[in-house]
Amino acid sequence: MIRFDQVNKRYPGSDEILRDVSLEIAGGELVFVTGHSGAGKSTLLKLMAGIERPSSGTVLIGNQNISKLRSRMLPYLRRKFGLIFQDHKLLYDRNCFENVALPLYINGITGHEAGRRIRAALDKVGLLNKEKSMPITLSGGEQQRLAIARAVVSRPAILIADEPTGNLDEAYAKDIMRLFHAFQQVGVTVIIATHDAHGIQNIPAKLLHLDHGKLTIS
Ligand SMILES: Nc1ncnc2c1ncn2[C@@H]1O[C@H](COP(=O)(O)OP(=O)(O)OP(=O)(O)O)[C@@H](O)[C@H]1O
Question: Does ligand 1 come within 6 angstroms of the Cβ of 34?
Fold first, then answer.
């Protein structure tokens, strides 16, 4: 469960980016966040993942108030999340297999079990044949899919994706949306920021719309 109560957010020296935002997301929901460029979508996702803290108001993740959470507890909170951000944050000196392996190794999963999960994740995003390739040799869309494989490999309870289909052609964008939908069907909470209103039309979901930092929910 993620809950915001009257959340405001400004960065040092910035205007108010999010204004009086209250929302609740239950476990297993599929949520799309839409809005114009600069509306505050990425900021909202960062607050949901505990990457940013609110300037005022309350953000609860599970039953933890992130403003009161000690820094050393953050890594434990982060394990709940699979994060896919616009700048993939791939490791360019490691191959695809090794990139996807990283969250598993951090959680102490290695060897045969790790290999099985890594290949299953690569297979889901259509990159099984690229496991030994270096990320720099992949197209933008392939790098995006690699970031998705890495985010889902440790089976997070909550998947947060910022414009995950931004660089993809229509067919792959549809596949990726189907993939996210499938994760939701097995109980994962999936939260996706997107410009792509077409891609989400036929998917039943909660819609959060931001306009200059003000939220409406439908
Ligand atoms: N670290 C930061 N410091 C200062 N201002 C920031 C920071 N991050 C974002 N902003 C500002 O906050 C506003 C909202 O940015 P945000 O990235 O949340 O919007 P967005 O809706 O995700 O935009 P886009 O669709 O273009 O990615 C923008 O005006 C941006 O310049």
Answer: no
Q: Is the CB of 11 under 6 A from ligand 1?
A: yes
Q: What percent of the chain has pLDDT over 70?
A: 97
Query: Which H or E run includes 40?
Result: none
In three-state secondary structure terms, 1 is: coil
Which ligand 1 atom is nearest residue 44's CA?
18
Q: How many CB atoms lie within 10 A of CB 118?
A: 25
Place of tokens 């939908």: 181
Structure tokens at 74: 């953050």
Number of domains in the chain: 1
- Tokens at 91, concatenated: 């490791």
Tokens coding 54: 């609110």
- Cα-to-chain-centroid distance, residue 68: 23
Q: Is residue 133 part of a domain?
A: yes
Range of the domain at 149: 92-154
Q: What is the pLDDT of residues 75-120, one digit of tens each?
A: 888 888 999 987 778 999 999 999 999 999 988 999 999 999 999 9
Give the pLDDT band of residue 131 (cuts 50, 70, 90). Answer: very high
Whether this prediction's pTM lies above 0.80 is answered by yes
Please state the separation of Cα 216 from the chain's center in Å: 21
Residues β-bridged to residue 99: none
Cβ(41)–Cβ(35) below 8 Å? yes
In which element (H, E) is residue 17 found? Answer: strand 16-25
**ipTM surpasses 0.95:** yes
